[in-house]
Amino acid sequence: MAGKFGLESDGFMKAEIVGITCSDVEDWETWQPDDPQDVYLGLELSIGWIGGQGADLFQIVIATPQSLNGRPDRRKAKLLVVQHYDGKQIRKTLDQWVSECEQPDWPTIVDCLRRRFDWEYEGML
C-alpha cells in the first residue's frame, strides 16, 4: 500500500495514470474500429505520482502492423504495436508499463517513462 506522496515502504515512488485522452475518438477504451487490424491512434496520458498533485503529459501511438505500412512518420512517435485493437487490453498494458517505473524520485520515474512514451517536455531540458 502506498504511503504519503506515492512512497512505498521501501522508499520508492509509484506513478499512476491520472487520465487518458484521444482527440480522434471520444471513448478510446470502448471504441470499435471498422477494421481492428488497421488502427493508428494517438493517446495522451496524464501521469503523476500516487498521492501527489498534478501530472506530466506523455504521448503514445497505438498502431497495428497494417496501419504502419507506408507511414514514413512512424518512427517519430513512441509506439505500442498491437495485432488488433482491444481498448481494454491496451489500457492494461499502459497501466503495467507505468507501474514498472517505480523509482526513488519523480525525475527518475520520468526517465523510465520516456523509454516507452514521448514526454511533454522532451528536448526542453
Low-confidence stretches: none
What overall form do the CA principal axes indicate?
globular
Question: How large is the count of helical segments?
Answer: 3
Q: What is the multimeric organization of the chains shown?
A: single chain
Question: What is the distance, rounded to the nearest whole angstrom, between the alpha carbons of the first and last residues?
Answer: 33 Å
Q: How many beta-strand runs?
A: 5
C-alpha Rg, in Å? 15 Å
| Protein structure class | alpha+beta
Percentage of residues in strands: 15-25%
Order of helices and strands: EEEHEHHE
Structural domain count: 1
Summed over residues and divided by their number, the pLDDT gives a mean of 88
Please estimate the helix content.
10-25%
| Main sheet record | 5 strands, mixed
Protein model, in words:
The chain is an alpha+beta fold and 125 residues long. It has one domain (11-119). Helices cover 20% and strands 24% of the residues. The chain is built from 3 helices and 5 strands. It has helices spanning 65-68, 87-99, 106-113, and strands at residues 15-21, 40-49, 56-63, 79-81, 118-119. Strands 1, 2, 3, 4 and 5 form a 5-stranded mixed beta sheet that branches. α1 links the parallel β3 and β4. The chain is globular, with a radius of gyration of 15 Å. The termini are far apart.
